[in-house]
Design brief:
The chain is of the alpha/beta class. The chain contains five helices and six strands, in the order βαββαβαββαα. It has one domain: Rossmann fold, CATH 3.40.50. It comes from Paenibacillus sabuli.
C-alpha cells in the first residue's frame, strides 16, 4: 500500500472494539484506514479501508505496524509496547478508549504493565479491562475527531 497524502489511521485490529467508529470518523475527514490483524480475524476491505492480515505469531501485527507507520500517522492500539515504539517514530497513538499515549507517560504505563505481569506470575489475580460501553465508544470517537480536526486545521494534533 502506498503512502497516502495526510495521515493514515493504522489500527491494531485483532481485538479492537472500535473499528466501525474509526472507519466512520475517517470518512468524515477523508483519511485512509489500515486495519492490521492476524489471519484468525476475518475482515473485509471497504472504500478507503485497506486490510492487511499477517500470520498469528505473537508480534506479527506489531512488527507490520512498526514497519509501516510514518510520522503523523495515527495508530489505535491497546498495546503499550507497540505504542512506545510508534511514538518514537512520530505517530499519534490512541487507545481504543480514547486515551492518548504520550512520550511523557508511556514509561510509567510500561512499568505498570511489567509490575502487573510480575504479580500474575506470582499467582496474584488482577482484573482485566472493563467491558466497552456505548459511552466508551462515543468518547473514543470524540477524541479521534479532535485529533483529526487539529491535524486538518493546524497541521498538528
Amino acid at each position: 500500500m502506498e503512502q497516502e497524502p495526510g495521515p493514515t489511521i493504522i489500527v491494531d485490529a485483532d481485538a479492537c472494539p472500535v473499528k466501525r467508529e474509526i472507519i466512520d470518523t475517517a470518512r468524515q475527514y477523508d483519511c485512509s484506514v489500515l486495519l492490521v490483524a492476524s489471519y484468525d480475524h476475518r475482515m473485509e476491505a471497504e472504500p478507503a479501508v485497506a486490510v492487511v492480515q499477517v500470520d498469528r505469531r505473537s508480534q506479527s501485527v506489531d512488527l507490520y505496524i512498526f514497519n509501516r507507520v510514518r510520522t503523523g500517522d495515527i495508530v489505535v492500539t491497546q498495546d503499550f509496547g507497540l505504542a512506545s515504539v510508534v511514538l518514537a517514530k512520530g505517530a499519534i497513538v490512541l487507545s481504543n478508549r480514547g486515551q492518548r499515549y504520550e512520550q511523557s507517560s508511556i514509561d510509567f504505563l510500561m512499568e505498570r504493565r511489567h509490575e502487573q505481569a510480575r504479580l500474575r506470575r506470582q499467582g496474584k489475580r488482577s482484573k482485566g479491562p472493563r467491558a466497552m460501553t456505548a459511552e466508551d465508544r462515543r468518547r473514543f470517537q470524540q477524541k479521534l475527531t479532535k485529533v483529526l480536526q487539529n491535524l486538518q486545521e493546524f497541521g498538528e494534533p
